[in-house]
Amino acid sequence: MLPAAIAVIGMCATLAKIFMPGTVFYRQERVGNNGERFYFTKLRTVVPDAEKRSGPVWAEEAAPRVTPLGRMLRRTSIDA
Predict the structure, then answer these.
(1) 20 within a domain of the structure (yes/no)
(2) Is residue 39 a part of any domain in this protein?
(3) Chain center to CA of 14
(4) Mutual orientation of helices 68-75 and 2-19 as an angle, nearest 10°?
(5) Residue 13 placed within a domain
(6) In total, how many domains does the chain have?
(7) Is 73 exposed, middle or buried, given 0-12, 13-18 or 19+ CB atoms closer than 10 A?
(8) Residue closest to 69 by CA, chosen among 35, 28, 18, 4
(9) Has residue 80 been placed in a domain?
(10) Alpha carbon distance 74, 80 (integer Å)
(11) How far apart are CA 65 and CA 62, in angstroms?
(12) In a 3-state reduction of DSSP, which class is residue 41?
């Protein structure tokens, strides 16, 4: 399964680089058990610097800051 997953993520990263400006991956800080902080790397699905425009917001079904490729990645859960 690992080779198939690498191929799918690689293809999505290539499409993201072609169709979206900015970086393909980003790191997000999360909080785990007992308040322990860790970083999670994800494929970018929104326009770069989206939070600078609107501030942090909860995810919405039809958020205007999500790119068309990002919608497909989120729908299929490939972005996480």
Answers:
(1) yes
(2) yes
(3) 14
(4) 160
(5) yes
(6) 1
(7) buried
(8) 18
(9) no
(10) 8
(11) 9
(12) strand
Structural domain range at position 62 = 2-75
Structure token digits, residue 23:
């970086």
Would you state the pLDDT for residue 59? 67
For the segment 5-28, what is each residue's pLDDT rounded down to a tens digit?
899 989 988 988 888 888 888 888
In the numeric block, the tokens 């942090």 are attached to 56
Burial string for 26-49 (b: 16+ CB within 10 Å, else e) reads eeeeeeeeeeeeeeeeebbbbeee
Predicted confidence band at 37 (pLDDT cuts at 50, 70, 90)?
Answer: very high
Whole-number Cα distances in Å, 23 to 2, 9, 18: 24, 15, 11
pTM over 0.90: no
Whether the CB-CB separation of 43 and 24 falls below 8 Å is answered with: yes
| Residue whose C-alpha is closest to residue 11's, from 69, 75, 64 | 69
What is the 8-class DSSP label of residue 75? H
The token duo for 8 is: 């799918």
